[in-house]
Structures are given as structure tokens and as C-alpha cells.
């Protein structure tokens, strides 16, 4: 009974923390602990009740998790090379499109180096030191990427029930200098879907803010092209506001917030959504938090081959956002491992 109580109390703690700060990587780890406690509760319940159905279900889930964990490296390799092949074929060669390919090559290189290390235990100290650093960094990256995936999943468990006052659509570049790209169209369409549903159910429409400045190869600001696209989809022009100075996600959030503040006297009672692509929701939420904008994100779907590579790019960008903290954490891990080895010897 105490174990169930601990799990319920932890669930309450998790929900309270989530309400206060959804855009934090630590939420991924906290969610993992919640799943672990829930799983243990389920196993205990199956054992105490003696229910065959619950016991079989618990066994099946445990076997499935084991298979996923054991086949993880092989699955990631397949996804990396498969995604890279399709992406390069359809989207063309660029450094950003090569991330999944680099990951696949990196994993193969890591496997070969570790195989070499295990086969020859008399390797020199320099090689052993390199492998120690490499494996520590890799362990940290895998841990953080798992946190990122779970935190992103938790962040996106949201459906806009309350009436929204504003929907910020984040820009994503134009094609041919003046046309909305399919990726950007997806973000606008996602906002329009919420707009129409709210208008139908609540009789009040939110204001859509098109956020995006003018790039070096663009004939007009992104937000202007976005407005024209939305008008073509039947959105009244007076329900659209323009923010045309931003050049990145941070500025999207900052300048959109300033625009809303110029219209609203009390921001504490203003409900705001931002619309972006599914892989970008979590990082965009981190920037919203950074500029003290209380907003929840919704994501437009994208093709899997593009999503996988873009997800890696998002993770890399999040690491760079707090690179000093991550470097300190890796160094701290290395110190612990080296100290432990020295004590054992």
C-alpha cells in the first residue's frame, strides 16, 4: 500500500512540476521514473491479485521493452542510413541534411573501436584514455537524447481546450523568394485548424500572428507571404497580425510577445499558442520560456525521413544552447569514473 501511495504522490509532484515548467529536459527523466514506478505498481498488482491476464500482460510488456533495448543500436543504424538516403535523394545535399548519415557512420566507427579495444586488452594508455572519454561522452549523449525524446513527448501531450486569444505561427523560410514552403504551410494550416475549431465551438476566433522577417534571398518578409497564404485559405485579414523583424526562433517569441503586450493590458489572463513543426515544438517552447512568454506549442506533422534528421538537428541545437553546462557534466562524469577506477585498483 505504501508503494502505491509513493507512486501517487510522485505523480502529483510530476504534474505540478510540469504545470510550472514544461520546457525543461529534466522532465524526460522525471517521466521515465514515473513510468518505472507505474510499471512496478502494475507488476505488484498482478502478483498480489494473481490475475493471469495481468501477469501475461506484464510479461509481454517486459519482453517488448527488452527487445527494443537490445535492438536499439541496429534500429538506429537502419533509421539513420534510410533517412539519409531518402533525404539526400529528395531534398538535395546540404550539411544539415547529412546529420543522420554522420550519426550512422559514427555508430559504426564506435562499434569498431570498441571491438578492437575488447579484442586487444594490451592497448596503450593513450588509446584506453581516448576510449574512456569517447564512451563517457556517448553515454551522456544517449542519456540526454533519451531525456529529450521523453520531454518532447510529454510537452506535446496537450490539446487546446480553453479559448485561445492568440496563435503565433513561427516562420520557416520561403521558396523562390516569395512563396510559402510546404513546411511553413503545414505550420499555418495547423494554426488555421485550431482557429476554425474554436470559432465553431466557442464562437470566438483567436488572432493569428504571423512571425517571420526577411531573409537575404527573400523578396519580402516571411510573415507577409504567410498572411497572403492564410487569406487565401479564408482567414479574414483583420484576424491576422504581422511580426516581420525576427530572424530566428528566439526573436519570433520575443517580438511576438512585445506585439501582444502592446494589445493586452493584462498578460496573465491571455491564452497563447504557438504553431510550428512537430520536431521543433520543444525547443520553441524553451525559447518561449526564455523570454517569459506563457505559451503552449502545437506541432504540424512532417514526413518521417525529414522528421528524423530534423530531430537530430533540434537535439544538437539544444545542446549548443547550454553547451557550458553539458561540458561541465561530462567532465564531472569523467572525474567520477577515473576516481572509481583508481579506488578499485
Automatic annotation (TrEMBL):
The keyword Transmembrane helix applies. It holds the Pfam family DUF218. It comes from the Bacteria. GO terms for biological process: Gram-negative-bacterium-type cell wall biogenesis; peptidoglycan metabolic process. The keyword Transmembrane applies. Keywords: Membrane, Transmembrane, Transmembrane helix. The chain crosses the membrane at residues 28-46, 53-78, 98-118, 130-155, 325-344. Gene3D superfamilies: HUPs. PANTHER family: INNER MEMBRANE PROTEIN, PROBABLE PERMEASE, MEMBRANE PROTEIN. This is YdcF family protein. It comes from Blautia liquoris.
Amino acid at each position: 500500500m505504501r508503494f502505491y501511495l509513493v507512486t501517487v504522490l510522485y505523480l502529483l509532484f510530476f504534474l505540478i512540476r510540469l504545470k510550472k515548467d514544461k520546457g525543461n529536459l529534466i522532465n524526460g527523466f522525471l517521466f521515465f521514473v514515473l513510468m518505472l514506478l507505474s510499471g512496478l505498481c502494475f507488476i505488484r498488482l498482478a502478483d498480489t491479485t494473481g490475475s493471469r491476464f495481468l501477469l501475461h500482460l506484464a510479461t509481454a510488456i517486459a519482453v517488448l521493452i527488452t527487445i527494443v533495448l537490445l535492438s536499439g543500436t541496429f534500429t538506429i543504424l537502419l533509421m539513420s542510413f534510410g533517412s539519409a538516403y531518402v533525404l539526400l535523394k529528395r531534398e538535395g545535399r546540404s550539411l544539415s541534411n547529412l546529420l543522420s548519415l554522420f550519426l550512422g557512420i559514427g555508430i559504426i566507427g564506435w562499434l569498431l573501436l570498441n571491438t578492437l579495444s575488447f579484442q586487444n586488452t594490451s592497448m596503450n594508455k593513450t588509446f584506453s584514455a581516448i576510449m574512456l572519454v569517447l564512451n563517457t561522452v556517448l553515454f551522456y549523449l544517449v542519456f540526454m537524447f533519451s531525456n529529450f525524446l521523453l520531454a518532447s513527448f510529454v510537452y506535446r501531450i496537450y490539446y487546446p481546450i480553453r479559448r485561445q486569444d492568440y496563435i503565433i505561427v513561427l516562420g520557416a523560410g520561403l521558396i523562390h523568394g516569395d512563396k510559402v514552403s510546404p513546411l511553413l504551410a503545414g505550420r499555418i494550416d495547423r494554426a488555421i485548424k485550431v482557429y476554425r475549431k474554436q470559432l465553431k465551438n466557442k464562437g470566438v476566433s483567436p488572432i493569428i500572428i504571423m512571425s517571420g522577417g526577411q531573409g537575404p534571398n527573400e523578396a519580402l518578409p516571411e510573415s507577409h507571404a504567410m498572411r497572403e497564404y492564410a487569406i487565401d485559405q479564408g482567414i479574414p485579414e483583420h484576424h491576422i497580425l504581422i511580426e516581420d523583424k525576427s530572424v530566428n526562433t528566439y526573436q519570433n517569441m520575443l517580438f511576438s510577445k512585445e506585439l501582444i503586450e502592446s494589445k493586452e493590458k493584462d498578460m496573465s489572463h491571455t491564452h497563447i499558442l504557438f504553431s510550428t513543426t512537430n520536431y521543433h515544438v520543444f525547443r520553441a517552447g524553451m525559447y518561449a520560456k526564455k523570454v517569459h512568454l506563457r505559451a503552449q506549442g502545437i506541432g504540424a506533422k512532417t514526413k518521417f525521413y525529414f522528421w528524423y534528421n530534423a530531430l537530430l538537428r533540434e537535439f544538437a541545437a539544444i545542446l549548443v544552447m547550454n553547451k557550458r553546462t553539458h561540458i561541465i557534466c561530462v567532465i564531472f562524469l569523467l572525474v567520477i569514473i577515473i576516481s572509481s577506477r583508481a579506488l578499485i585498483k
